[in-house]
Amino acid sequence: MNELSAKTDTSEAQLDRLAQVCEDVLKRCRAAGASQAEVGASIDSGLNVGVRLGEVETIEHTRDRSLAITVYFGKRKGSASTADLQPESIATTVEQACAIARYTEDDECSGLADADRMAREQPDLDLWHPWNVSPEQAITLGLEIEDAGRARAGISNSEGASVQAGEILAVTGNSHGFLARERVTRHMLSCALLAEDENGMQRDYWYESVRAAEDFPDAKLIGNNAARRTLERLGARQLSTRSCPVLFAPEVARGLIGHLLSAVSGGALYRKSTFLLDHVGKKILPDFMEIVERPFIKRGHGSSSFDAEGVATVDSDLIRDGVLTRYILSSYSARKLGLSSTGNAGGVHNILVKPGTDDLRAMLKNLGTGLFVTDVMGQGVSIITGDYSRGASGFWVENGEIVYPVEEITIASNLREMYTNIRAIGSDVDPRSHILCGSILVDKMMLAGS
């Protein structure tokens, strides 16, 4: 899967071009009277191949350009964007951003991040691994993935397998003199399969996402995992309404951490629309829990030496001994709150939840009798109140052993209680996301079923 063609890597030359565009835009903004300006230019390209039932369904080459400009006239802000990098379009976009700024109201918190916070160093984070896979090679790989899954007895149909290779080139700059280049790749393999028995049809999937194609597991494992997960769902039952402990599989558990991140992010805080308002320095998780941000992980899904405003990222704690140590802030939200940016404009960078020592089998033993959730659906989560109610499927567990699959149930609680009632974190960390988390065992939730 890491076989490369003789295709020449022109990324440096393209970054030079984007850098020239950004420098030209900043000059144009100054000439137009802007007191501050920031610009981002990018080229997003890739290949996406889909196969289904042994046939090619899609072959898609993508190449998208974008240019986003923000100007400040004092405390007035204007933004405009374009997908055309020709000089005439760039000039028009600058004019549009300036015109918008002249007619907006002053906002005392607007403006660039502080100049002394700009990232001055860009260490190599090993994020650039072009996968020059040809359409023919991608088709062969997709068929291999799907064939492996379809070969399992009991698989009755397929929603297909996909192969994606992606590259992003980006340059970000502002009138503080900050100008930074980024080259990142992200590749994905996936497969979704169906099985059917007398109780009906079931569907499940598996995928792998990596920076470098050499990090993919054997293609057949992806099809096999999709088939195994699908077959395990056959014979799914409903549960009667009850209260019980719930174990969230790693790929679902990271969503619980995502809700926490949203609740301590600047926008929710200054709007007072979060149940964790004014919680810095307070205990919100059990003593054994630690959550840290690590922006400099090699090949990490969220690695970067600067945020969307150019502010340098740093290794830092978010939760220590169960206590919230800081918020997640851009320069704007920080000013609204009378605080300082945490280098999180645009989001977080590699969140690591300290794993426990128990693998999944041991976590099931710790669960005892309760629900093992492998999939959730619906949008029933309120960051304002913390109320949590989502459709779920997974497995009913008794005495630490899976006894049968379950579906069409609703799990409900409040995030504040769920976080307080976390009993254990597994060692089974899912590496496919910028939120690195093992399975999470919550002591008690309500299950609404038949």
From TrEMBL:
InterPro entries: Metalloprtase-TldD/E_C, Metalloprtase-TldD/E_cen_dom, Metalloprtase-TldD/E_N, PmbA, TldD/PmbA_N, TldD/PmbA_sf
Key words of the record: Hydrolase, Metalloprotease, Protease
The Metalloprotease TldD/E C-terminal domain, residue ranges: 242-449
Start and end residues of each Metalloprotease TldD/E N-terminal domain: 37-101
MF terms (GO), sorted A to Z: metallopeptidase activity
Swiss-Prot/TrEMBL GO biological process terms: proteolysis
Keyword Protease belongs to the record: yes
Name of this chain's protein: Metalloprotease PmbA
GO CC field: cytosol
Family label: Belongs to the peptidase U62 family.
Domain spans labelled Metalloprotease TldD/E central: 129-234
Protease among keywords: yes
Species the sequence originates in: Pseudolysobacter antarcticus
Pfam families: PmbA_TldD_1st (PF01523), PmbA_TldD_2nd (PF19290), PmbA_TldD_3rd (PF19289)
